[in-house]
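Model it.
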Amino acid sequence: MRKIATILALLLSVQILVSAEEITVRMLGMVKDPGVKKIEKKTSLIGLIHLSGGAKLGGCPKSIMIKEVINGKQKLREVNAVSIVDYKTPDIDLVEGQTIWIPENVIPCMTKDQIDAFNARLPEYLGIEQ
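Modeled.
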């Protein structure tokens, strides 16, 4: 009986450890695979865009909106992901509950070639070999 209790305690502690290492965010807008995402706690904005399949044509990764609630108040900030993959500004660490939105522009802010180039740079920026 003591062995069963020990094994159960270990399993519960592993479950708690795994869940503590994940966060839930919402990736919305012009990405290939939008939706609610459970991601590793250390995932950055560029990592999330990559995990979501990259930006879609018509989307504007130059003006991504990040919404979060801090002390009961909603905070919005605009981020230029192109500037991040160009190493001009630092990447952003994501936190629990954020909503990330790549807007669709009626007048495209980027051409198809520019979107394709942006998406192609994501793995390189993240150090992922293809």
